[in-house]
Amino acid sequence: MIHSNTLEASSLTHYHFLEIDKIPYYLVVSRNHPLAKRNSVKLKDIEQEHHFILCQKSTFSTLEFAKQTWDIENLHPTFESVDNRLTLLMKLSQNAGVSLLPAYMIKGYEDKLTLIPLEDFHSTAYRIMGTNDLHSFRGRLIFLEEMRKLLHI
Question: Does 13 score more than 50 pLDDT?
Fold first, then answer.
């Protein structure tokens, strides 16, 4: 998976990439949060909130992705990194802050958390498949197209 503000891999010229899908992000808040009743939010509306970012302490690529996303809008909230999903979801459900997450991340907490669409979130997480062998890539492309048909995506 690649977190990116654009799907470009210009530095990897010997690789062939196939986008599998894009993963939309939402503002995730407790059902008790004042924003929970909103139909959508803009980034500037949540700049002052306490933001949790799920990222491993050894790799901060998710944190850098988040900072770049906010920099595009010239906004600079503060972030607290959380290194595991369950701790993040517990903090959110206890109304200790907010987070920008894909919908699948709140599985098991749907009754405690609310997903709010973001109006101006210009970043996307892409799931991609890449290979440096063109022959192998063509075979994967055929396989992927068959899977998309079966899964209706």
Answer: yes
With tokens 């996303």, the residue in question is 69
> What is the rounded average pLDDT of the residues 40-61?
84
Nearest to 105 by CA among 9, 11, 24, 7: 24
Give pLDDT, residue 57. Answer: 62
Segment 104-145, tens digit of pLDDT: 899 999 999 999 999 987 666 655 555 565 556 666 667 777
Q: Classify residue 134 by its DSSP letter.
A: H
The beta-carbon contacts of 81-90 under 8 Å, at least 24 apart in sequence, are 81/52, 81/53, 81/54, 81/55, 81/57, 82/52, 82/53, 82/54, 82/55, 83/54, 83/55, 83/56, 83/57, 84/54, 85/54, 88/52, 88/54, 89/113
- Could you give the CA distance from residue 2 to residue 79 in angstroms, rounded to a whole number? 21
Question: Look-up: residue for tokens 């939402």?
Answer: 26
Instruction: Work out the burial of residue 53: count CB atoms within 10 Å of its CB; fewer than 13 is exposed, 13-18 middle, 19 or more buried.
Output: buried
